[in-house]
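Hi R.,

Here are the chain sequences for the assembly we discussed:
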Amino acid sequence: MTDARINDFVVKFANVNGSGSASANGLFVKSILRMGVPVSARNIFPSNIQGLPTWYEVRVSEAGWLGRRGGVDLMVAMNPQTWAQDVKSIEPNQYLFYDTTKTLPPSAFREDIRIIGAPLTEICNKTYSDPRQRQLFKNIMYVGALAQILGIPTEIAEQLISEEFASKPKLIDANVNAFHLGRSWAEQNLAPLDFRLARADKVGDRIFVEGNSAAALGAVYGGATVCAWYPITPSTSLAEAFEKYCKKFRTDPDTKQNRFAIVQGEDEIASIGIVVGAGWNGARAFTCTSGPGVSLMQEFIGLSYFAEIPAVIFDVQRGGPSTGMPTRTQQSDILAAAYASHGDTKHPLLLPCDPGECFEFGALAFDLADRLQTMIFVMLDLDMGMNEWLTPPFKWDDAKKLDRGKVMTAAELEAGREFGRYLDVDGDGIPYRTLPGEHPTKGAYFTRGTSRDEYARYTEEGAAYMRNMQRLLKKFETAKSLIPKPIRRDAKRRTPYGVIYYGSTAPAMDEALAALEAQGRHIDALRIRGFPFEDSIADFIREHDPVFVVEQNRDAQLRKLLVNECEVHPARLVPVLHYEGAPITARFIVQEIAERMRAQEKLPHSEHAK
Amino acid sequence: MTYIAKPKFRHPDLEPNTRGFTRRDYEGKVSTLCAGCGHDSISAAIIQAVYELDLEPHRIAKLSGIGCSSKTPDYFLGLSHGFNSVHGRMPSVLTGANLANRDLIYLGVSGDGDSASIGFGQFAHSIRRAVNMVYIVENNGVYGLTKGQFSATSDKGSKSKRGVVNHDAPIDLVTLALDLGATYVARSFSGDKHQLVPLIKGAILHHGAAFIDCLSPCVAFNNHEGSTKAYDYIRNHNEAVNRLDVIEPRETIEIDHAPGTLEIVTQHDGSKLRLRKIHPEYDPSDRLDALAYLAERQSKGEIVTGLLYVDPGAQDLHDYQNTVAAPLNTLSDSQLVPGSSALEKINASLR
Ligand SMILES: Cc1ncc(C[n+]2csc(CCOP(=O)(O)OP(=O)(O)O)c2C)c(N)n1
Ligand code: SF4
Ligand SMILES: [Mg+2]
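And here is the predicted structure of the full complex:
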């Protein structure tokens, strides 16, 4: 054995859905994190519930690369149904781990991989009589075996097991025993691999959490009190997490009554209707959904824009169109969200890149909705929404006040302050609103989706309609200064090349940029965090040619939005598109960009430099 | 705030109520509906009911969908906030508004197209969720605003103005409301102010989902011979089961009817519904009997009106949600935001 590769490999677990593998796989990943070694882990699951394959892909990277790498160094093949494809996916000369209880013909394996295993079922059957226990402990047992051959310290795994079952102490010993059964079998029978784990100090204070859960917590911190939703993968766990956090933080300690209301609507139209009604009446309200739900909400989104009603939609994007690939990830609702509804409309979008930003933007969305009196979209996707990611810890400044926007009070009305619901008194395009019930005789108005004047009086007069539409544009201009600014990272050398990306592409892009730099390819990078685009984005595009726009959809949706809104020449923006449903990888980005750069370098200089 | 000045003329209605509001203070803009439209009479009945109940106008929120009927909230209660929302979606918007502030009175106005076709689902679900509201359908059997197409409440065999016969089975919203668990259900007729005003008052005082199906002829498209929603037809087939008087908690009741024909129902807030029975066998406290009675009478071509069902001890969505007493839209930052130390604990649990 030569030097083992330390803290740099990919393990993939192939399991049967519903077999209880999730907590065992979670134990594996958390143990590595406790060793101070960065990990990213992704669930890959089809849109069925029982008896069907699921995979859990774990990338260990001391360098801290959290995107998907692609390829498998150790396949833990626990699902006979997917055996053939699982064996096929292993990198040459790397490892297959399987349950050796049943002998398999040589044709079931590959010549060019290394095969290891443990008689898990046999040990289980010897040790346990209850069939459910046999199943569950088999999972913990393979974690024990892996811990042995990869070098997870026993005390870390034991500590995690006791934390996990703190409320059911009986299960602690049982799980620890199962772990040791696997571990000692491996100790006696298995040799170390080409790669292994070693303690490091690379995790820091980061936390490991799903984007949906983080966004839901953001909604709690953002003061949301009304949630109306309709179940749809991959957004459901956001509503569920909101309920969980509300029960913890929003129950009145004395009365045990709720400072929140959650309604499972009969569909997405009702859900957004409830949100708009609550927003109109001064409560912070949101829905969470995915592409098909956004399609159903179109009419209300236009109403929110035109009648200027605060509301928030968390769109956890999945593979479309239609039912598309409901359990796969994409960034394919960008245009549908930005220009949602009929007539001339556009809506602010927040584009978080990890669970940390899901929390931050999840809270910010409610301030923006109240400040701008319009629909705010927070665009997550399945990859960051439903997978636990290593992310900076959540931060909150206790000095911060929720920004309720321009709401005229009874005292102001009483003092004779002029109120025109659609009157731009401050020159920022944002009018004042009043809430129902505020004052017995002043400030009431009639809200409608129909054209009206500055004082909310119905009118179909062209000039009044246009004044209003122009004011809405001015308001959108104001939004630019409130949306999170893009983050620019310049290459070490001056370069004509630029790249724009956003959302869950970020971890793969971090790694790709480092790899490209190592190849001597220098690229300035800009991560966009929201729409409308602030002026520095157009400046970045003007300073570079070409600018690669990397995104996870077929139609280059962000690129189209940039061309449209920044009025830049489309030829400057070169699409790099990944939309097969699995998250984008650094390998893919490096290959695509390097190829285009090589092609560009071959062009006569004059053509390149324009 | 009234933007369109109306000609002022002296009228006995300028008498202020105990809150100091005159009947005029509860009016809205001048209606733009066709002269004689039933919907305008319903607006007048709403104004009368709110005036008689001495309610402050700003404690009421008016919500509607889209249609001639849904336009009417602009024509009453001009000092109340109103929301003319999306076709068929008033119930969801009202539900959200109600969740935000449980202290206001929510008046939902809809049409038969709005509630029985495009908004059929929202009608049903807002009722089964027990939203505390007054839900009035101004039922004319047609789409007035889009010029006279049949609606889903049109009776089988009813003839359109152009002579087309409707073959589709009608949807009876009252039967459905009963079935879905509405806790105050009435039917009335825009042309019978004496019946309608107390029914609206009772619905406003009711705690829970109150539904009123109010027949309201469309003079432009559905008031001809052969229509079952025309003024003459309704007058000739109207069978009131009872007459209602609403007595507010502070008023005392005088018993002025022979026992057996009078029933008094006390609601949540102490208000009393005094029912003078016209059909002595009809019992508005029994939902299943009400359903059977309606089915039987309707098969004979009668339009049964009156207070058809009431559960005076009903609960509402907030009771089921167990929400705090203070309106959610008044909670302060400190009641909403858990703060940085709680966040630190969450961070620690995620490592
Ligand atoms: C989504 C949508 N579809 C269609 C319409 C057109 N529309 C406006 S009102 C209406 C029917 C209204 O009928 P009803 O609710 O019975 O009201 P009425 O005018 O009879 O009082 C229709 C179809 C619309 N406004 N929105
Ligand atoms: S069209 Fe019919 S419903 Fe509409 S205003 Fe005229 S009479 Fe009333
Ligand atoms: Mg109608």
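The CA atoms of residues 16 and 22 of chain B lie 4 Å apart. The radius of gyration of chain B is 21 Å.

Let me know if anything looks off.

Best,
T.
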